[in-house]
Design brief:
- The chain is an alpha/beta fold.
- Helix 1 packs antiparallel against helix 3, helix 1 runs parallel beside helix 10 and helix 6 crosses helix 8.
- Strands 1, 2, 4, 5, 7, 8, 9 and 10 form an 8-stranded mixed beta sheet that branches. Strands 3-6 form a two-stranded parallel sheet.
- Helix 1 links the parallel strand 1 and strand 2.
């Protein structure tokens, strides 16, 4: 069976996606088109690149996530200046190390720009806070910015989608008219873009969504201890509100819900045991779901 697949955002919780993919492939299901937000965009790109779940697990386990936390040089030398830089540069970390890692992984599979991907087979969700628009890359690049979608770097698009506000610095897109837009995490406007393949689905393939939550209405109380906790709580409140209003009950029959507890989106100190637990949870929940899907 061939399907299209949509991955939600979720930061480091996305290890659970590896278990879900293992379950999908073991069932003999072939994934065609893929879409994702934030961490989900990473997995979507890996699927497009033909990376199997075993290699995904190896790739992600080999990298030290803390290396992705790359503050500007000044804040390394004078720690208290990071709050000044946060004010002026809109983020604590540059995200350059993360983007370079993505670039190398995808380039090794022959993917650098969207020209290297079959048209329509990878869609990455980002938020343009300058224009106040949800953007689908590469689809909206020409219409909104006048840019050639085929020459746009895939790793850059993923880095944009994973720009958790104030955690990673936003990326910029400059239009042909030299207008500048700040791009942040796609989850700000749609953390679970299940809608992206519902228009003009000529192939009429089933669309399977994989979400790192109990349900679309998941509204567990946030434990707020400081300003960053408050920021995350506000962010998650916005993304839940959008997707909960859009996704109907009937669509929920096509969603694997993977309830990840007690791990924060930006917990880059996650242990190997926690990673393995997430992978196993994704596998278990997907196995249960796929026994009865599609209905």
């Amino acid at each position: 069976m061939k399907i299209d697949c949509v991955f939600s955002g979720g930061g480091v919780k996305a290890y659970a996606f590896i278990g879900a993919l293992k379950s999908i492939y073991e069932k003999g299901i072939t994934i065609e088109r893929v879409a994702g937000t934030s961490a989900g965009a990473i997995l979507a790109a890996f699927v497009t690149a033909g990376i199997q779940w075993e290699e995904m697990e190896r790739l992600i386990n080999e990298v030290n996530l803390k290396k992705f936390l790359d503050p500007p040089i000044l804040s390394k030398k004078i720690p208290f200046t990071k709050w000044l830089l946060l004010y002026f540069q809109l983020g604590l970390y540059k995200g350059d190390v993360f983007e370079k890692w993505l670039y190398n992984v995808l380039a090794d599979k022959g993917i650098i720009t969207f020209q290297d991907i079959r048209e329509g087979y990878l869609k990455i969700i980002v938020s343009d806070v300058s224009l106040g628009k949800l953007i689908v890359i590469p689809d909206d690049l020409e219409r909104v910015y006048g840019l050639d979608k085929n020459s746009f770097n895939v790793a850059t698009a993923i880095r944009m989608s994973a720009s958790f506000p104030y955690f990673f610095m936003p990326k910029e897109i400059k239009s042909k008219q030299n207008k500048r837009s700040y791009i942040v995490d796609g989850g700000l406007l749609s953390n679970f873009p299940l809608w992206v393949f519902r228009k003009n689905n000529k192939d009429a393939r089933p669309v399977l969504g994989i979400s790192l939550s109990d349900s679309i209405e998941d509204a567990q109380p946030s434990n707020i201890k400081n300003a960053l906790d408050m920021l995350q709580a506000l962010f998650h409140a916005m993304l839940r509100a959008h997707d909960a209003r859009y996704i109907s009950k009937s669509m929920q029959d096509n969603i694997v819900f993977i309830p990840v507890k007690n791990i924060k989106t930006t917990d880059f100190s996650i242990t190997d045991e926690q990673k393995e637990s997430l992978i196993q949870l994704g596998k278990e929940k997907s196995d249960q779901f796929l026994k009865l899907w599609p209905k």
